From TrEMBL:
Residues 14-345 form the Enoyl reductase (ER) domain. It is found in: Cell projection, Cilium, Flagellum. GO terms for cellular component: motile cilium. CDD domains: sorbitol_DH (cd05285). Keywords: Cell projection, Cilium, Flagellum, Metal-binding, NAD, Oxidoreductase, Zinc. InterPro entries: ADH-like_C, ADH-like_N, ADH_Zn_CS, ER, GroES-like_sf, NAD(P)-bd_dom_sf, SDH-like. This is Sorbitol dehydrogenase.
Amino acid sequence: MAQENLSVVLHSQGDLRLENRPVPEPGPDEVLLKMHSVGICGSDVHFWQNGQIGHYKVTKPMVLGHEASGRVVKVGAAVRHLKVGDRVAVEPGVPREMDEFFKNGRYNLSPSIFFCATPPDDGNLCQYYKQNSNFCYKLPDNLTFEEGALIEPLSVAIHACRRAGVTLGSTVLICGAGPIGLVCLLVAKAMGASRVIITDLLEERLTVAKKLGADFQLTVKRGHGAQQLAKTVEDMLGAQPHITIECTGAESSIQTAIYATRSGGVVVLVGLGAEMATVPLLNAALREVDIRGVFRYCNTWPTAIDMLASGQVNVKPLVTHRFPLEQAVQAFETTRQGLGIKVMLKCDQNDQNP
């Protein structure tokens, strides 16, 4: 077993370092993974640039990364369903206690949950990482490690579409064509949405969205009024959408989402923005538009694996940049600049393949 464990560590706002840490020893219910592919998420960059997200503040060095896959190299004494050599996708949120949220199946809402790369919990952007074996999922032979890592953002989309009630024939507006908006597009289509319209400020993102199956693309110009945009959405679709999935967190976009959604419909808030926002709440109330929040995901990994393995969803086009772990700072800078869609770090020096 290697003695060094190269890790991407955030020490404080703007201070991102590569450093060696000890190789962890798995407990009875844990497995040690040799990490292979880890995607960079917007939240990783936000912690790097700002030192905090909401009340989660970096107060001590923290390993980044939570979109991950790897290979089992050691198993704890009590682990029965995994063995050395298994390729797995990692679910980064692990309940610490069997509280009411765990019992009713909404463990993502547990206030004490462990979550990779959310202070004070270390993430898995490293060469070796130990994880609760119950939150490691075997990858079928026809899926790559990168697809395994992309199950994390795909899970956000599955959870969002479940919360929204996407079903056969749904018409859906997606605000924002970044990585999360694009996976929401893929999942909404797979769940039966008949028509999907997606918005963004950047033409190149909308071009990708069209290739991934978006029926309509709407370029948003700064200064466009929310009600004006909502009317444009209605004109393009031929009717107001049943469901809007808001992936930007921008106040103006949330306003558009509410105005655009048809009476009796659902707005799901996925994007994280300011703690306070001015929104047309009376408009939503008088039209019985439900506004629902999304916090990460729960019970999504098996569904995501089945979606990918069956070919119903293809996330491969989302990966536009790859860097070896040793070039992590350059990879983070690429993500910060908004280049491409998904930047993937390759943690295994001996296997840089997808």
